[in-house]
Amino acid sequence: MKLTPAAFKSQAIIALKNDSLQRALMRSKSHFIDKRQVAIANLPIFARLRQRAVEIKEHTLAHLDFYLEYFEKQVHEQGGQVHWADTPSSACQQIISICQAAQAQQIIKGKSMISEEIGLNNALEQAGFEVTETDLGEYIIQLAQESPSHIIAPAVHKTREEVAQLFHQHHHHYHFNPQATAIPDLVNQARQVLRDKFLAADVGITGANFLIAETGSTVMVTNEGNGDLTRILPRVHIIVASIEKVVPTLEDATTLLRLLARSATGQAMTAYTTLSTGPRRSDDLDGPTEFHVVLVDNGRSSILGSEFHDILRCIRCGACLNHCPVYGAVGGHAYGWVYPGPMGAVLTPLLLDLKTAIDLPNASTLCGRCEEVCPVQIPLPRLLRYHRIRAHQAKLSPVITRFTLQIWAFFARHVKLYQWFTALNIRLLGRLGQNKGRFRYLPFLGAWTASRDMPAPQGETFIALWKKRQRKQ
Amino acid sequence: MNSTRSTILNHIRQALKRNNLDNNTISNLEARLAAHTIHEQPTVAADLTTTFMEQLTQVAGTVEVIPRTTDIPFAILTFLQQQQLPPKIVATARLKAINWPPQWQVAYRAAQPADQVSVSYAFAGIAETGSLVLLSSSNSPTTLNFLPSNHIVILSQADLVAHLEVVWSRLRSQPLPCTLNIITGPSRTADIEQTLQVGAHGPKRLHVILNTQKQY
């Protein structure tokens, strides 16, 4: 997947002018927020569950080596194999080897963000395999040759007309009604086309929402049933998961499950929650004969214990995206990589590098809605601030910004001077703006005043007023 | 590959600022695993059957309550007639004992692409969310749960539990199946314009036959 977080600003401007994207964002915003709100209102123990979820995740992260080794041992006991990958290329290479050993030609996939992160589809295609995404949203963007714009609704930016056109273009040999634009017809088309793919596939690749150390099982949460067909129909099932997905017990996973779907889609439980434990048993009539789990680090072990540690609790529900005013305005593609929104603005600079992705943590008002809705209480605004501090220290921010900050820092450290200067400023601006009471334009602040007026200051500074009051008393 | 494994594990230990765990910590962690502590659970009304049926209906599942095991074929027939489907089903081998009407075609095997209706047995029903728990086995192939457009699930009232955690504790006395499905309503998607559409890749209809007979 191409990496364009460095172009965030221009991508955001394009997104703001894209009418159909703006309509799509409008629609999804209220949809996700309202449904989550109802689901949470129906769960009085939500606050306590959140607290418990944090405790479970923190306990696991503090003993991550133990739980990963325990998980590995259990997978082996169930007849499966575990592969460890520290980099995207190592992960892709190991998956390619499994597919080659299985003499596979066709591969089907369930939705997996980690596979997007490691650029798996591209690597598999380069190696000569035919890869088909089967989640409807992922399928749509695969046809459009785009990247996901939302971590749980990858094609949220597409209108039904755009989907209809894509399907018309790619499904012509199926002779569907060319006029079909109704959503049920489109869903049915994808169902029929992908059914053939499912039945012909040699390898199925899915992600995992949780890995259960206790049993060596992987847990997959879906609504369409595509993930399950991907697991049970092909001969080989490969699960790709990052190392922080492990939890100790089934009970621990159950607590996280109670939070996940509610935070994501407002469902108490998604249609399908599946526990996959090893390959088919000797007397089973279906299921895969090989079961592989690829554990991907790709930078997680460096985040562990750092000031960004809290982001490893993330369960990928997407609530922070849905509640973010910036994501809501520009959509996911502007962020330029796999993870958009607040969690993406924290993760992308860590997984790529800060220099490329510096605009992402800056593109936030730090309003705090993301932290408020996060089911595992990740202090996202604080983590965004850490990125800004690092960028400033590494001199990645523009010269003018650092220069201005230096001047401000000088005054902030000289209180008397600061008070004198602000008092002078206020008097001056107050006098200048006397007539209209506001400024349409301010020198150096053209970008700010382009979309709003600056009110002219009235009276004195807060400190001056405070001192007066103290004297009176 | 083994070197990658130790690289990752060493990175983790370095990040956590410690070496290998000492035996004392390991036995504490093993004790935590063995304890299977149940965390906070939502309150579920005492009448599990009513709660289960309400929750299932909310997620677009349908349900028929039958008083006797011998009513199973009639309940299936009612569903097939409602959906205007022929009496041709692929079923769990647990139904072999049933005396099917002569013109019925009943197969006991994994599902195939042409199958329209499947019948499975649930290991448990969960009142909290209206979910069904199905275990894969030679009697209960997982394809039955996903390939046909119509999925009929027989659930015994005695197997209704309040929360998922009961299922976990019941499963600990037996080997885990290859695949365990927790099914909550028919297949669905909202991937086009956030519009809910039932019947994406899995079954378009999920019909539960709730058997209230005490012993069978």
- Mean pLDDT across all residues of chain A, rounded? 94
Indicate the CATH class of the largest domain in chain B: Alpha Beta
How do the strands of the widest beta sheet of chain A line up side by side? 1-10-7-4-2-3
Described by strand count, sense and barrel closure, the largest sheet of chain B is:
6 strands, parallel
Ends of chain B: how far apart? 53 Å
Examine the coordinates and then state which fold CATH places here, giving the name of the CATH topology of the domain at 5-158 and 202-301 in chain A: Rossmann fold
Poorly predicted tracts of residues of chain B: none
Helicity range of chain B: 25-40%
Q: What summary fits the major beta sheet of chain A?
A: 6 strands, parallel
Structural class of chain B: alpha/beta
CATH architecture grouping of the domain at 5-158 and 202-301 in chain A: 3-Layer(aba) Sandwich
Overall tally of structural domains of chain B: 2
Supply the CATH architecture of the largest domain in chain B. Answer: 3-Layer(aba) Sandwich
SS element count, helices of chain B: 6
Count helical runs of chain A: 24
CATH class of the domain at 5-158 and 202-301 in chain A: Alpha Beta
What is the CATH topology of the largest domain in chain B? Rossmann fold
Strand proportion of chain A, as a percent range, falls in 5-15%
